[in-house]
Amino acid sequence: MGKSENIIELIDVRKVFDDETVAVENFNLQVKKGEFVTFLGPSGCGKTTTLRMIAGFDIPTSGKILLNGEDISTLPPNKRPVNTVFQKYALFPHLNVYENIAFGLRLKKVPEERVDRKGKTVTKFIRLGKSEIDRKVKKALEIVDLEGFEKRSVSTLSGGQQQRIAIARAIVNEPEILLLDEPLGALDLKMRKEMQVELKNMHKKLGITFIYVTHDQEEALTMSDKIVVINDGEIQQTGTPTEIYNEPVNTFVADFIGESNIFNGAVVGKLKVKFCGATFDCLDDYEINQLVDVVVRPEDIRICKPGEGQLKGRVISSVFKGVHYEITVQIGKFEIVIQSTSDAPVGGVIGLRIEPDGIHLMEKVYTVNKYDGVITKNNTVEFGDGDFECDLTQLYSGSHIDEEGYLVTAEGEKKDLTGVEVNVEVAPSDISMTDDLNAGGAKGNIISMIYKGDHYRYIVRTEENEEDYVLSCPDMWNTGDLVGVVIAKEKIKLALKPAEEEK
Ligand code: ATP
């Protein structure tokens, strides 16, 4: 087998901490030699853990990491041709710039072939000579644009300069891959912007592979050849900055990268989608009745005379952002954000036009219904425009409900949970429908039914706030039916919102 053109390959990588925290899952990625790849995602999504596995500081729980086609999953960090730059520079404060960069080189031993007295060729490991170290340090300083700084004490340098020294220290070892974990995170905005350009230039000069971690979408879009968008430990999308921005594959990516309007929509005809109460031509071909998320970028919406576009609404705010105005328009109960180079007066009515290529449809993927809920009484939770009986003892392990109906914790503390906010989850198979509208916790109309082989998948939407209940059921109902939504109390999964846990 010839050498792979991928320098790094992650195959089905999974990392679980302490048998319970799944930090990384189903991670499959190919990184080409010389690419600038960025891991982008919110805090806690698994970016650093993935980087640490590539560096060798963490070992995958399962899956493989290949370097030039060879499995290195369990190889120790110092045996990998990889160096890491962290957010905190971790320079030695008592050493000057030269010594900081030369530090690793002085410890390094390189193989050299010699002929011994008996005429045999032997390999000896020798330390680098002074002139060799000088040459390497000088070259590294040149790359980070800090020639002449050799004698400076690192404590006299600015944050940006210190980070450049940290980069010089990493590249002086001539790694094949440079890993950068939020290296600009500690710098102020102006310095960060300058360093973004410089890092990109360094990448060009060095010609090696960069794997970069950030939660800053703009940074990722500016610097990368390839962006890997991660959420909850899983890759959401991999692509060039333009692909990720123009063709997000789901609402998470659309929302995370740039500004987006996201609406609930339904496909109502061949290349026709309905959302915000109007029907639009679109380019994504889905089956009729398919429910979709519709993503529209603010810059893809044009202002026109009322009555000329597909939508008409009232301007509720307009903010000048330097190059464009960010205008919020109320259309019935929907709000839509647009970007326009011309202003529109607040209070005025305007028309909006969206061309088919500005409308992106994404199939809604339902695994579980999720709602924001509030405990209303000791045994009732309000969510999805409804009130449901629930079991609150699941919120505190070992708790029970006393005779007066109060929750008592395992430690004997009586809790009044009225008004407490919770996350609610219900599986589609745990929801049923009834003709008796008073029997359910909520009521709504069936707005979609799709036959899925042995059952139907229904979506019931409430009238008040258009909350959706996705449910599966073998019986046939009709679209448009008004139904009650029934959920058994033991099937309603509750979790305290993080802010409530801290109280
Ligand atoms: P951030 O941008 O905040 O650094 P991240 O995307 O880099 O976040 P990770 O640091 O990779 O995220 O963390 C992913 C998940 O794994 C988090 O839930 C985190 O708490 C958990 N985690 C990370 N390291 C450990 C560890 N050593 N032990 C237990 N859990 C860990």
Structural notes for this entry:
By secondary structure, this protein is an alpha+beta fold. The protein has 3 domains: 1-81 and 175-258, Rossmann fold, CATH 3.40.50.300; 259-363, Nucleic acid-binding proteins (OB fold (Dihydrolipoamide Acetyltransferase, E2P), Beta Barrel), CATH 2.40.50.140; 369-501, OB fold (Dihydrolipoamide Acetyltransferase, E2P), CATH 2.40.50. The strands form 8 sheets. The protein has a 6-stranded mixed β-sheet with strand order 6-9-10-3-11-12, sandwiched between helices. It has a 5-stranded antiparallel β-sheet with strand order 15-14-13-16-22. Strand 13 and strand 14 form a beta hairpin. The model has no long low-confidence stretch (mean pLDDT 89). The structure holds adenosine-5'-triphosphate. The site of adenosine-5'-triphosphate has 13 residues, from strand 2 and helix 1.
Instruction: State the share of residues found in helices, binned by percent.
Output: 10-25%
Low-confidence runs: none
Which class best fits the helix and strand makeup? alpha+beta
What binds here, in terms of ligands, is:
adenosine-5'-triphosphate
Strand proportion, as a percent range, falls in: 35-45%
Mean pLDDT: 89
Count of DSSP-assigned helices: 9
Termini Cα gap: 59 Å
Find the CATH topology of the largest domain. Rossmann fold
Instruction: Please give the radius of gyration in angstroms.
Output: 29 Å
Largest sheet: 6 strands, mixed
How many structural units, i.e. domains? 3
What is the topology, as strand order, of the major beta sheet? 6-9-10-3-11-12
